[in-house]
C-alpha cells in the first residue's frame, strides 16, 4: 500500500472519509496532506492535513494540521499515484462563467496605432 507523501493534494468526496471510525463524512473536501498513517481498519488510513483554505495568504492557520480524519485507502493510493504537483495548483477545473476575458491584443494594437510624431 502506498500512502501519499506530505504535500500531496487529495480530493475526497462524501462517503470516502470518516470523521472518526464508523462515522461517514458527507461533505467533499480538498486536503493538502501533512502525514498519513495506517489505521486499525485496512480500508481506511488516518490523514493529517490542511484544507486548501489554509494556503490562502489571508489564512492564519498556524497549526501543524487542522484535519484529522480517516480517508479510504483506495482514494489515497489514487492520489499518491498522481504526478507531483508541478502542475499549477490553481488551474481552474472548469471554466468560470462570467469571468473577465483578458484582452492583451487590444493593448498592443492601441500602442501601435498611437505613435508619437
Ligand atoms: Zn490548516
Question: What would you note in describing this structure?
Answer:
The chain has helices spanning 73-81, 104-112; strands spanning 9-12, 17-20, 23-24, 29-38, 44-51, 67-72. It has 117 residues and is an alpha+beta fold. The chain has one domain (1-83). Strands 1-4-5-6-2-3 form a six-stranded antiparallel beta sheet. The protein is globular. The structure holds zinc ion (ZN). The site of zinc ion has 5 residues, from loops.
How is this fold's topology laid out?
Layout (H helix, E strand, L loop, with lengths): L8 E4 L4 E4 L2 E2 L4 E10 L5 E8 L15 E6 H9 L22 H9 L5
Bound molecules: zinc ion.
Zinc ion binds next to loops.
Count of DSSP E strands?
6
- In round numbers, the mean pLDDT is 81
Q: Taking strands numbered 1, 2, ... along the chain, how are they ordered across the largest sheet?
A: 1-4-5-6-2-3
Listing every helix as H and every strand as E from the N terminus to the C terminus, the arrangement reads EEEEEEHH
Small molecules bound:
zinc ion
Class by alpha and beta content: alpha+beta
Percentage of helical residues?
A: 10-25%
| Rg, Cα atoms, Å | 21 Å
Low-confidence stretches: none
Query: Number of domains in the coordinates?
Result: 1
β content, as a range?
25-35%
Intertermini distance:
71 Å
Q: What is the overall silhouette?
A: globular
Largest sheet: 6 strands, antiparallel
Note the total helix count.
2
Please describe the structure with a list of short key phrases separated by commas or semicolons:
117 residues, alpha+beta, 6-stranded antiparallel beta sheet, 2 helices, 15% helix, globular, binds zinc ion
